[in-house]
Amino acid sequence: xxxxxxxxxxxxxELERKVAVELxxxxxxxxxxxxxxxxxxxxxxxxAHASRHHxxxxxxxxxxxxxxxxLARVYAVLGRAEPALHHARRCLELCEEHRIGxxxxxxxxxxxxxxxxxxxxxxxxxxxxxxxxxAAESIAEAADREQLLADLANLYGAPDG
Length: 161
Known about the structure:
Blueprint: H1 13-31, H2 38-58, H3 61-77, H4 81-97, H5 102-119, H6 122-136, H7 142-153
Helix pairs in contact: 1-2, 2-3, 3-4, 3-5, 4-5, 5-6, 5-7, 6-7
């Protein structure tokens, strides 16, 4: 019988947090890889979902939004528009629901822009790109703002690996 999502696990909170972080970072390692095998693409998807699952159990709404953003990026990089759009929308919903702004709100729009590019909808992509640029003006850290603008600059190119 499957375990309920709210059922206790054998992992204590500290270990579950560590697993969530490690899986998130592993996903980044695969995203940044210049060339991935199909098996590595699958591992990237599984790791991103597993990380998000653990954040759901142990994290905050900010962790949840960032996990949704990572899933949107993974699927966009793989050219899988429907799940990219789904997770990008969830990211934005979480940001709006929990009043998460700054870097994360800007990246929610970046995720939607990138997902719409994957779907071939340049008009929707352009709308979200503009919203990301507007949100970038409120990013407190200059380095975060520069990273967002760099990511937007390659929106129509080959993102990540």
